[in-house]
Amino acid sequence: MIKVIFIKEVRSHISSNKMIIAYAIILTLFIANSLIFIKDFKDSRIQHQKIVTDNLEAIKKNSGNLWNLTFTDQKLAYPPSVLGFMSEAWEKNLPNGIKLNFFTTSNPEYYKKEDSFFSESEALDWNNILILFVSFICIFFSYDAFSGEKVEGTLKLMMSNSVSRTHIILGKYLGICFVTLLPLLAGAIMSSIILLLSPVIQLSWNHFFDIIYYLFAASLFISLNVCIGMLLSTLTSRPIVSLSFVILVWIVFSIVIPGIGWVIAKKTVPIESLNSINDKLSIETKALGGSFWNGHWKTPTPEVLANKNYFDKVDEIVNKTWNDYRNSLFNQVNSGIAFSKISPFQVFRFLGDKVADNGFPRYNNFYNQLKNYHQTYRDFIILKDKGDQQSHHLIWANEYCTSGFMSKKSVSYEEVPKFEYKIPFFVQTINATKWELLILLLWNMILFTGVSFAFIRYDVR
Amino acid sequence: MKNFKILLIHEFLQQVKSFKFTLMVALSLIVTVFTVYVQVTDFKERFQNYEAETLKASDEAMKAGTFAELHVPVIIPPNPLSIFSKGFDEKAGNKITISVEDLPELEIVAQKNNPFMAIFVNFDITSIIKIILSLMAIFLIADTIAGEREEQTLKVIFINRVTRLEFFMAKYSAALVAISIPLFIMFLFSSLYITLQPFIQLSTIFWIKLLLIFLSSLGFLSVFIFIGLWISIKTPSSAQAMIYGLLVWMVIVFIYPRLVTYTVSKVVDVPSSEKLKTDIDRIYNEFGDKLVEDHEKNYPKGKLYFNNTIESSKIGFMNKDNWWISLPYKVGITSKFKLEFDAGQVKRMIPVLLEYQNRMMDTYNNYRNNQLKQKKIASWLQVFIPGFLLDETAKSIAGTSYDIRVLSLLKKARQNRSIYINYIKSKNGFGPKYFTQIPQDIWSDNSKDYNSVIDKYSWDNYPRLNLTDIPKFQPVEKFKVPLELFFMLLINLVLLLIVNKAFISLRVEKN
Amino acid sequence: MLQTQNLTKRYEDGNLALDSLNLEIKEGEIFFLLGANGAGKTTTINLFLNFIEPTSGTAFINGIDVNKDPLDSKKHVSFVSENVMLYGNFSARQNLDFFAKLGGKANLTKADYYTMLRKVGLQDDFFEKKLKTFSKGMRQKVGLAIALIKDATNILLDEPTSGLDPKAAAELIVLLKEQRNQGKTIFMCTHDIFRAKELADRVGIMKEGRLVMVKNRDEFLKEDLEKVYLDYMQEVVI
Predict the structure, then answer these.
(1) Residue A63 belongs to domain spanning
(2) Which residues in C lie closer than 8 A to residue A157 (C-beta atoms)?
(3) What is the pTM of this model?
């Protein structure tokens, strides 16, 4: 019986005009998304290549002298994500780089094309197509699942036959899910083909697994939406009332709760202003008492060591302060994200961001990888300096003075450790998104159970 | 039209008594309360930053010892109407520095924001109207005719001497009045909340502009009422009408605008800010060459001076011997010949600097105009989209549009700078007074001659300029009736005619 | 066979919709249940179809307790509702196909469906047209076809002739007679006294939830059924 009801459900939706319009819109959006992404990715990649090349040239230029290299600033940025078509994750508005040298890493920097007039243009990625439009389509198909058939009298007619309520629920649920998944899959396949055919985009096996994983999560998202519609359909006999409630829920989940996330973030984790931090730092560093000296001395006299000591202490304070600051930035965002995950729409959105490895998740990955690289880079310079017998092995942030006390030998450019962003492996992606996936599964289970309970008690007359 | 009143009252009551009306009013209220709270909190932060900055900047300006050092800060206060229509009020910088060395461009002051917070959407009142009230309008009206046809009440109405026009006007007016209730409550609540904030000063202009935004919002919602009515007439069943209405809403409010801005932003090329920087640097370096040339030509060869420069100019260049050549800025006790050279250089090179700065400002303007190319294309593609029209109208009225908040402001800034330059000229500021307070009668090539006054012109004690008569920056009070408002009215007119025609051929009979 | 034993339904608001109904309708019998609106006719059908639970008493379909084995009992019953919209986007045949399969008839062909639709009097060129274009009478015919194709031994009808033109109503009567002659049990709730006189083997009158009168064909043909009915109805206190 499930099969009979399933086929009826699929047929009844597919034959309607609104379905054709909805399908056409979804496919158009997917195609537009992939075509536009190809151009955008190409531009971003050129931009990124330039940053990388410039940086490597700076390293090359300065690798002839270890002392020069120590004080050279590296400008590092992460490359544009190949899966950015799945989720743009506000990439255009977020910093994507860091400046670093031996002593410090900077605060987040922007190394990108931000020239568009619409710097806050709302993206048309898979995430947004699903969360804004496909979820809306789910509403259309599921809000009158029960109340509509009741009003038409067909529910009574169905139930005058030997068919259990469970079968009806399952048949309808599977039918509506199928009908909504179809355009998603068609769009995803079309998009993927366009992307594959483009010489600009190289999709690896890892990417494919990510795409399939994302589509699996998307099916959970669609199923969740169908359940919401069906559940609200059982709570009332009038379709218009179910529709009102479903739209209410949709607005709360997609617009209100994400908006509240911003407030919660700001209230729970206040960020100190840069001016205030700078003022504090200058007070703290002044309190250390400076040691100003402009000598050319090449022997580590007490003045030299005092100067080194001062700069090392300053570095420690400055690095700690800025690290704390950066952590507070991340914490603020994470607290907002945590709250807004009350909405399953946001859970899915953030899962999409992580799978596409774009935006804030990518910056987090980048930052963590960078911290490791920084350590490697420092170790390399210290090691090379140790290898020079003539060096006093004193490295501190006073560029002019250090020249007398550390190695000035050249190092081979090839030896210098270079930062390269590693994209997360598929298994890592699943691990990073396990909670989001579990939450989606939980929502599905709870809602489906709710539908079952509600329909069992539903008055079909 | 004698039945119009009866129909209107009946229709209005039908709307406001319906369950969906109550639900939607509740929803829009909740969202408004929350949005206003967020925006006002944000405004408070911005305002506090503004006050701190203003204090700091004017403090510093008053400390100027020379005309070169005089930087008149113009800090733009946050606009209370930005709570209703954010526009560029926060995005564009809020500080312009008027000085000889700086170009009057907008800078962002006190980066308070966590850049990563951009992942959270931040709505203003206009966005709420655009998204939620438009949905409400469609939702209220989309099934009205189709529903009456289904329930056979349409037939009963037209048994009486009711004209199609009466009926149409009654439906439309009732819906408009009904939807204006939550709109009014939204504006009322927001205004009350804002008035209660001690840090927000409201003028009469504010209230007038608010009223205009309210009326524009009504014009916006009217479009959706027309669309809803049309769908309701053309669709046989009320359920279908509702679905089509929602679909149209989704396309007009979300899909089409996003598609346009997304495509235009990525596809239409604009000059990169890198190129702008390169162009500006080129002009700057051209000036640099001239400055260096002037230095080579006029500086007495081989002579060394006892240097007591208090502060250096931003405008400096390396010559071929790796010497830093710059315009004099704030000079303390030094050799007479140096002071004479500096005075001569200022007299010769400041006019040249101003000329090159004009070229740089023109380059900036060109860049901005080219950037606007994207906006123009996107605007023409959305000229029939009510949400876009409301946005642009509200921004224009509030003064947060790009045109007013950026372009007009910068134009005014340029004018003010000219006034400022003239002020300096009137004070003979483009001579020795440009870079030093040391009176000419004590200039000497012998350092011993300065023993008695060396402390007076030191870093800590340098005398300040008398700035009591300095011209004040005039704010931009621009109000231009936005073109988008006309388009909105035009769309309403067109829809009025279309829907009227549909009403005339309205099928009263159920299938 | 349809049977009730002291079937009672009291709703949560205290309304006694059905009061100890005792009824037995045998195979090959047509039973008409007459009564005013709200008398309890539709409640009886709803109880038979397990749409609601009885407060007390039992309903049986072919001896199967409807409440204990609803799915089993429903195998033996077809239902024709009063105002059925059916699936507007489906054609008559598609509607028939769906409900036939639900009713357990999985192997019917298009020809079988066409035959049934013809039998209920639907014109050929409407077989594949979408139901939303149909008039009320045509929809009723499809509804009847749905009931008949299940070939269940019992047929329940709720106001099937309301809104039908005399010709269509007459066609319905012919079909029902045919079913009765095939040994089917037919239970019809209606206001249509005229058809009752034409078709019923027995007639019952329901008043305020009680079955106040049952007469067989010989009995009510001798009397003026309308007068009897109205006499009973006049006693109803509204």
Answers:
(1) 2-456
(2) 79, 81, 84, 86, 99, 143, 146
(3) 0.88
